[in-house]
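Researcher: Sequence recovery benchmark, item below. Answer with residues only.
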């Protein structure tokens, strides 16, 4: 009898001693998260000795809102779906750190989500993209969350979680389609298990392939935001680099110049003034950007990019997650409104200067390297936004059926496909206060021919509305047919104001706001303009997606083997009406006038380059001219010209130059030449870099200028 009660007591004592000595005992006994139980966890993106500092900042923004959101998400639970689970465990793991009083509950939620819910996800190669990419991205978050709550679980619970993760992610091979997400999740798991201790060159090389040396994505803009940009749909593609950085295994990312440039381009150029993605490559107007968790850590890469990100995320609170709270080394800085930029290997990304969602945003896309499956035949292709809408669209997505040049805003020979998706890049250009200019070379995209697309964004000034001028220069065999394609975001009807001259498209294809229109004005007369409906997406993928209208304008190469074509893209709405536009044509030139109601008159002309053109108001020898007159004040742009005269203003040059002169302030680009500038009050004209001034009497300045781009201004 005595023996019967001694044994249970002895057993209970042993159990208590075991619990007291067990390093894997579960959960906090006090209100503090326990010290390390002897493990080296957490270590992937944070260590335990950093927890107090993380808690200390939770009483102020932006951290306060993240803490509150994380606790709410942790309490709410999750559906058994990959994206829901990644948000849930990321929040619960953060709440485990910050909500000390309930840390055991939050740790339990992470454990239960992994054991009970992640185990139910349908993961597998046979389920296509949906079986691989979102699942692997979600498991990346689960690995980070497990690493953080590791010390709050007993050894059995840890093993249960690890088995689920291992069983599930190894249904996906390390190599295969969507390889970056495989590298990212398998690589994070390898670091967690202590298997990887050296840099992951395959992953690094894959990231670098998706960024040109100037920082532009050759993949398309949507995929730039979702892949290297850190989209929530593919977390491990970009998030793996943060684990590599934090653990010290590979520090090639945060200080990487190409990644710095990429983030500047992503937040500062790839989105329009309404904060929507410009349409380039495989994408649809219906695809949007979310409140992405990884993007708050842009501060780890570059201060300039962080300023643009702060502009993009202005007024948007970060989601409560370990990624938003722990990864960024600092909060986002004060917002910086993006500005126009040129990327030699990538394109021109122009925008109006005001922070106005109705502002114009123009892309002249031209990559020289690194095209891939989602890249369209868009060498010298266009994207245009304004008045709250994407005004031009393309063939949409997905894959080969949407790639051909005629389904994009490009120039073709005979309407044929391009022979390459790579061009010669931006070969000339500049950005000024009221005019942005870029020249893109077709490179090898049109075999045996040469196409230079010259795009101008004319900014609003003195009541004159902004618009776009295209000067297309083509060298080819006489008699060859050139077709330029434009795809306004219109799915109903195009209004023909004047056949082969002026066309107006209501912007009603997947529009963001109503009431916008785009006038397409063919200043150089085409032989014909064809309007037809074309697909906006691959029909078997998007069977109900509406078609849109495409305009194709045909021209013939002249006997001299070249043609110059001027086209205007003029966005407008009821509050900003289109001014009258009138075509003018003469010997060796074509063009139009735009008569703004504010008293500003623009003259747009194409010339032959080597022939002197004389009109009623200007004399010039060059390839293209824009002259803007406001009373007695004349501003002019001349591309590859040697002479321009209008009233008392103008220049002559020994060799061709490209010049923009706005009342004594402007830019010159050349290979170096001698120049004579005429005008008023030139005495104080200053050049940067300096030039060899031969003479200057205040009305005529003679100088020898070096190769490159030179700024000049009146002091």
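Model:
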């Amino acid at each position: 009898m005595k023996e019967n009660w001694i044994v249970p007591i002895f057993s209970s004592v042993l159990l208590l001693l075991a619990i007291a000595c067990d390093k894997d005992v579960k959960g906090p006994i006090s209100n503090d998260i326990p010290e390390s139980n002897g493990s080296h966890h957490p270590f992937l993106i944070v260590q335990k000795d950093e927890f107090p500092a993380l808690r200390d900042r939770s009483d102020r923004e932006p951290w306060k809102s993240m803490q509150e959101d994380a606790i709410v998400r942790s309490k709410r639970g999750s559906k058994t779906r990959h994206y829901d689970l990644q948000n849930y465990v990321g929040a619960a793991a953060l709440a485990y750190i910050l909500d000390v009083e309930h840390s055991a509950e939050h740790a339990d939620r992470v454990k239960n989500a992994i054991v009970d819910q992640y185990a139910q996800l349908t993961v597998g190669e046979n389920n296509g993209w949906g079986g691989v990419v979102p699942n692997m991205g979600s498991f990346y978050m689960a690995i980070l969350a497990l690493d953080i709550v590791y010390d709050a679980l007993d050894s059995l619970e840890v093993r249960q979680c690890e088995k689920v993760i291992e069983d599930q992610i190894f249904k996906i091979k390390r190599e295969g389609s969507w390889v970056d997400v495989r590298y990212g999740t398998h690589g994070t798991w390898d670091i967690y298990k202590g298997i990887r201790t050296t840099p992951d060159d395959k992953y690094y090389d894959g990231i670098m392939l998706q960024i040109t040396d100037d920082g532009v994505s050759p993949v398309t803009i949507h995929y730039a935001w979702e892949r290297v940009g850190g989209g929530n749909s593919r977390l491990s593609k970009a998030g793996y680099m943060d684990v590599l950085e934090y653990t010290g295994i590979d520090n090639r990312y945060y200080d990487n110049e190409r990644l710095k440039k990429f983030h500047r381009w992503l937040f500062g150029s790839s989105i329009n003034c309404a904060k929507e993605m410009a349409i380039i490559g495989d994408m649809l107007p219906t695809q949007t950007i979310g409140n992405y968790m990884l993007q708050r850590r842009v501060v780890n890469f570059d201060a300039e990019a962080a300023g643009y990100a702060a502009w993009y995320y202005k007024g948007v609170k970060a989601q409560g997650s370990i990624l938003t709270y722990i990864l960024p080394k600092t909060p986002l800085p004060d917002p910086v409104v993006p500005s126009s930029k040129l990327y030699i290997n990538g394109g021109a990304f122009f925008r109006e200067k005001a922070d106005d969602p109705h502002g114009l945003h123009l892309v002249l896309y031209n990559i020289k390297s690194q095209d891939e499956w989602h890249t369209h035949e868009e060498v010298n292709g266009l994207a245009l936004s304004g008045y709250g809408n994407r005004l031009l669209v393309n063939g949409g997505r997905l894959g080969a059926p949407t790639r051909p040049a005629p389904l994009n805003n490009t120039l073709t020979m005979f309407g044929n496909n391009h022979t390459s998706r790579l061009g010669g890049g931006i070969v000339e250009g500049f950005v000024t206060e009221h005019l942005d200019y870029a020249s893109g070379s077709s490179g090898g995209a049109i075999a045996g021919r040469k196409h230079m697309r010259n795009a101008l964004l004319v900014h609003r000034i003195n009541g004159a509305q902004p618009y776009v001028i295209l000067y297309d220069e083509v060298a080819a065999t006489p008699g060859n047919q050139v077709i330029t394609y434009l795809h306004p975001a219109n799915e109903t009807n195009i209004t023909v104001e004047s056949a082969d001259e002026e066309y107006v498209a209501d912007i009603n294809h997947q529009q963001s706001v109503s009431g916008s229109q785009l006038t397409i004005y063919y200043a150089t007369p085409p032989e014909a303009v064809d309007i037809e409906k074309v697909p906006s997406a691959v029909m078997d993928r998007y069977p109900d997606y509406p078609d849109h209208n495409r305009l194709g304008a045909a021209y013939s190469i002249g006997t001299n083997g070249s043609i110059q074509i001027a086209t205007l893209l003029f966005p407008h709405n009821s509050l900003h009406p289109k001014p009258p536009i009138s075509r003018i044509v003469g010997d060796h030139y074509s063009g139009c006038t735009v008569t703004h109601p504010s008293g500003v008159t623009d003259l747009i002309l194409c010339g032959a380059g080597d022939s002197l053109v004389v009109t009623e108001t200007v004399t010039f020898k060059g390839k293209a001219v824009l002259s803007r007159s406001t009373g007695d004040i004349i501003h002019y742009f001349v591309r590859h010209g040697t002479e321009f005269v209008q009233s008392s203003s103008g220049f002559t040059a020994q060799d061709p130059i490209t010049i923009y002169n706005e009342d004594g302030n402007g830019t010159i680009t050349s290979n170096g030449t001698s120049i004579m500038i005429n005008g008023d009050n030139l005495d104080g004209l200053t050049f940067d870099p300096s030039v060899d001034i031969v003479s200057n009497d205040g009305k005529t300045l003679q100088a020898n200028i070096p190769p490159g781009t030179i700024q000049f201004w009146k002091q």
